């Protein structure tokens, strides 16, 4: 039957794409005091000599079994809802789900310990009289952005498939504007989720 192979065709095409499509991302340089804690030296996202991709492939070829990895973090911390002049890392107050390790709630970032292909999605909400631009970051490079414009509680979201190596970090960066959150403990209008596909 041809139905099953045709359903797999988009995934096969996706897996045949170059492993990193973020080369056009604009590096932030030193992330500085806006982050929850200092970051280590970060891998160059462009991987010009291919050594990073070779290490990912070697780990997969060695049969390194990885468990299920998935997380959702929500509710932007009230101290990190304003970008200011330089932007700031989005810090989350609530962990909704964290399975298999990787989500660091103290630093509000995902650190890859199991190389592979991951899906990330995020959502941002601007206040009634403001806007917000939020960037999904891989190490120190912007992967993609979302914009929540003026107009009264506008929202922006985006998603990406990223091939990660051991030690890569993914987090949200509030580049411009403000984020809105209600003070109710159980609500969370801003969020970041991710899970390992293979």
Description:
It is found in: Secreted. InterPro entries: C1q_dom, Collagen/C1q_domain, Tumour_necrosis_fac-like_dom. With 198 residues, the protein is mainly beta. The protein has a single domain (17-196), classed as Jelly Rolls (Sandwich), CATH 2.60.120. It is 13% helix and 36% strand. It has two helices and eleven strands. The protein has helices at 3-16, 51-61; strands at 70-76, 88-89, 92-99, 103-104, 109-111, 116-125, 132-138, 141-148, 155-164, 169-177, 191-196. The strands form two sheets. Strands 2, 4, 5, 7, 8 and 10 form a six-stranded antiparallel β-sheet that branches. The longest helix has 14 residues, at 3-16. The chain is globular.
Question: From the helix content, strand content and strand pairing, which structural class follows?
Answer: mainly beta
**Principal-axis shape:** globular
**What is the CATH third-level topology name?**
Jelly Rolls
* Total number of distinct structural domains: 1
Give the overall average pLDDT.
77
Number of strands: 11
The biggest sheet, with number of strands, parallel, antiparallel or mixed sense and barrel status, is: 6 strands, antiparallel
Which consecutive residue ranges, at least 5 long each, have pLDDT under 50? 1-45
H/E series: HHEEEEEEEEEEE
Helical content stands at 10-25%
Write a brief caption for the model.
InterPro entries: C1q_dom, Collagen/C1q_domain, Tumour_necrosis_fac-like_dom. The chain has 198 residues and is mainly beta. It has two helices and eleven strands, in the order ααβββββββββββ.
């Amino acid at each position: 039957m041809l139905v099953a192979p045709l359903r797999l065709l988009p995934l096969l095409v996706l897996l045949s794409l170059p492993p990193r499509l973020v080369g056009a991302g604009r590096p932030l340089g030193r992330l500085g005091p806006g982050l929850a804690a200092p970051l280590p030296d970060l891998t160059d996202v462009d991987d010009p000599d291919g050594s990073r991709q070779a290490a990912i492939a070697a780990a997969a070829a060695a049969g390194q079994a990885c468990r299920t990895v998935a997380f959702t973090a929500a509710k932007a911390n009230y101290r990190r809802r304003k970008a200011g002049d330089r932007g700031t890392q989005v810090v989350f107050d609530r962990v909704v789900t964290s399975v298999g390790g990787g989500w660091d709630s103290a630093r509000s970032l995902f650190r890859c310990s199991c190389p592979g292909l991951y899906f990330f999605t995020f959502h941002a909400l601007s206040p009634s009289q403001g806007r917000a631009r939020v960037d999904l970051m891989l190490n120190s490079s912007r992967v993609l952005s979302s914009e929540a414009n003026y107009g009264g509680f506008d929202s922006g979201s985006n998603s990406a498939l990223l091939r990660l190596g051991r030690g890569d970090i993914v987090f949200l960066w509030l580049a411009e504007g403000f984020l809105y959150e209600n003070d109710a403990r159980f609500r969370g209008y801003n969020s970041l989720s991710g899970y390992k596909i293979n």
